[in-house]
Amino acid sequence: MEIGPLELLIFQGTPFCNIDCNYCYLPDRLNRTKMSLDIVREAARKLVAEEIIREDFTVLWHAGEPLVLPVEYYQQAITAIRKEMPGHLGVTYSFQTNGMLLNDDWYRFFLQHNTELGISIDGPEFIHDRNRITRSGKGTFKKVISAIELVKSYGMPLHVISVLTDFSCDYPVELHNFYKEIGVDSVCINIEEIEGVNTVSSFSDKESSKQRVVQFLRKFFDLNLADGEPFEIREFNWAKNSVLHGEWEAPGYNFTQMTGPFKTITIGTNGDFSTFSPELISQHSDRYGDFIFGNVMHDSFTASLKSEKFLRVFTDLVNGIDQCKNHCSYYGLCPGGIPSGKFSEHKTLDANETQFCRLTFQAPIDALLQMVEEAEENVLPGR
Ligand code: SF4
To answer: Which letter does DSSP use for residue 148 in this model?
Structure first.
């Protein structure tokens, strides 16, 4: 079994979140525990010593809202990580934030460490404030927009993640205009999914959901192309690369960041570690128990891969990819899914199609292929 190399290291600095989005999947977002710096240091030390870190990689702070911890915490954490890293390795630091607590101190810190920053915003106020709310039910739009104005004033690139719901599917024009107006550099569209404690999605029981997402994406992609691509759309780039390069058609398994052992490692606040999709670290299951394979303070990463639990999880994951290969016409364009999506919907990784993959992988490919077919018909009328 090939291990790593590590591409993405996620530290769950705290499970606590200062807001309460309707579709949040995190079970523990009122818990104010904080990861000790000893855990950060020991994780970095072991990952280097066990040669799981072999090339440049990204450290992402994610779980609850990372900015509820003070700037000084991250200064110390980065110092601890740097001390353990061989000089030739590049580490990119990345934060995904709801934007509520951003201020000048944070921007100075981000610029000092050349940090990547993603801000969560779902679109204009009437869309964003339906779901992204405080614990007292107030919309968060105005605060996030102030944070975005600050990003622009510091000359940082503006990357946003937006959750697409059944409601927002009706507003591709409004969403596109909005992203242009606020000057985004890139947009990632996350489809609202059944995950963790979010057991129902606005798309859950609608036969027509895939068609709605395809129509939304087609319009959204079209608008962006017609405007000369003022910003990048992750889903468009992904579909284009998949269709042009078919990079998953290699024989055997072409493990991705979410399916390759230790290509992604998630470290929980208490030092527990997991791999594959980061969402799995907080999931429980009759079949697997949980997806925690050890604790950085007293276990070895590589030894954990020999445990009976890990082998049961990995065997199911590989069997699930085989199911995709054997049953899905998108396999080859799609890498065989995301473990957390399969687990959330089927309670096992030995599974193929999910609502998540229909909307996240199949829909962008359908949207792109429809655009290509239409363009060909226009070039060769009556063919
Ligand atoms: S689209 Fe779904 S079913 Fe098809 S290969 Fe991807 S994950 Fe598997």
So the answer is: H
